[in-house]
Amino acid sequence: MSKQDEQRLLVKIATLYHLEGRKQSDIAQLLSLSQSFVSRAITRCQKEGVVKISVIQPSNIFLNLEKGIEEIYGIKQAIVVDTEENASEFAIKRAIGSAAAHFLETRLRPKDLVGVSSWSSTIRAMVDEVHDHNLKARGVIQLLGGVGPNGNVQATILTQTLAQQLNCEAGLLPSQSIEGSVDEKNRLLASKDVADVVSQFDEVDIAIVGIGILEPSQLLKTSGNYYHEQMLQVLADRGAVGDICLHYYDVNGNAVFEEHEDPVIGMDLDKIKKCPNVVALAGGTDKVAAIKGAMTGGYIDVLITDYPTARLLVKN
After folding, report:
1. What is the pTM of this model?
2. Which fold has domain 63-313?
């Protein structure tokens, strides 16, 4: 058999498979070949350049930018949503929330325990965008105290809503995020209702978290779960650039409070780092330093952010 004869057969098989959409079994029957021969031929066609597969990337999909973030910071996946340079905070959160809902809908397994840092308007946008009624999880638990000092219970409602969408039970953390003192925090951690949820932190399969900066978000201000000026100055003096679950870290991702100083009831940074899948929802160019610190510290596996912020993350 000459080279030309062999190539003729490869082109014939490639045309039937790629252009006419024939199944391998049908091609084998049509050409009186074994199916294994057809399968090997299709593989050869790609290796030898008979078939060239190209992916057409729409202008609002940023695969190269996502790959750049993944390589620079060593995270599993970056998802960059399309937003305008001057997009409003609401538009950014809605776009990130939609992408996060799709991520959850396509990755969630029935055996997964989902943890949610529920004092986040971006996570709330994600919850609003979950529309698959067939989703199932083992449970949803709060990763951060869900009661505001002024009686605000939005975090509790968010957790319950997500649990309903995932057809599972909600594990609520009945405490404030920031207690009045470390002693008060330890007293609450010893109570059964709080201890039952905190004991499950090590079992979380997917942690959905926001990334904060020193200036508290409007949601936190409304709830009362935030540090006031004197403590914010202490954090700033120690080099804090951002927080996850109200545990603050510096540009290198190092915690700025020792355990004995931290009055926050929530999943701590060490446990976040050990969680197998931490999905961070964070957008806005004011959060670049906080996002960088979180990725440098190794706390994030998946980042969902907006295009202007993503471009700044890959700049030196």
Report:
1. 0.86
2. Rossmann fold (3.40.50)
